[in-house]
Amino acid sequence: MWMSQRSLEREFMDDHTPPQDVVDDVYQFLGGINRWLGGTRATLHRFEEFSRGWRVGQRVEVLDVATGGGDFARALVRWGHARGFDVRVTALDISASALRSARQRNTSDAAGLRYVCADVHRVPCREGMFDYVSCSLFFHHLTDDDVIRTLQSFDTLATRGIVVNDLVRCWRHYAWSWLFTRPFNAVLRHDGPLSVRRAFRPAELAALTRRAGLSWLTIRLHFGHRMTLAGEHPGHRRPRDDAAVHAPQPGGNRERDQGPRSAGV
Fold this sequence. Notes:
By secondary structure, this protein is α/β, with parallel strands linked by helices. The protein has one domain: Vaccinia Virus protein VP39 (Rossmann fold, 3-Layer(aba) Sandwich). The protein has helices at 12-15, 20-36, 39-50, 71-82, 96-104, 144-157, 171-181, 186-198, 202-211, and strands at residues 59-65, 86-93, 113-117, 130-136, 158-167, 218-222, 226-232. Strands 3-2-1-4-5-7-6 form a 7-stranded mixed β-sheet, with helices on both faces. Helix 5 (96-104) links the parallel strand 2 (86-93) and strand 3 (113-117). Helix 2 crosses helix 5. The longest helix is centred in the first third of the chain and has 17 residues, at 20-36. The chain is globular, with a radius of gyration of 17 Å. The model is unreliable at 241-260 (pLDDT under 50).
């Protein structure tokens, strides 16, 4: 069967840092795809479910990992404020060029948003600092073992829950990606379809989740060949101390380029 196994071929943006204008184009394209084809809605739908247990005015700290152009982080801040919650998002990415792109696209939502340049496995934050950890279009860049390790890191950082949003590998999605990226730059034309070939199928991601020991996370399929892996920790763990919200340590937000994550179209 075609694409019965995920590709392990590296994407261009996993190993290279294109010029800033190309990076900006990539994240602008992804932002449009997420808005118009339901990627953003899929993540917000899971947070909508979680928010049934929140109080109006409650402060909610979210770590958005591999934030890229920051579209999900900004959307989450806007969503929270529209519903009366004090949602604050720390947008994390290992790529300085990705964060430059995110900052220049910032809006009035900046009051609830901060950017940190760091690796999630070396993030300058203490255990349990965040209520939730989220990511989008990140897992298909990882090996199976890295997915397990990353989920366990998410579980350490979050006191309440996790939301992962990513692509579903299938031939129709590959065709969509090939078609939608044709008018754009060479990086998008290469990495977009390859992202689909690198993506998981739901059963594959579910198996890795069990291996990570996080069987309380559930998978849902969404429009646009997206899936979310999300859930709240049973019983929740100790509440986060709002008075002790940690600021990034000196050097923790050092800007460096290790290649922006690829265009996960």
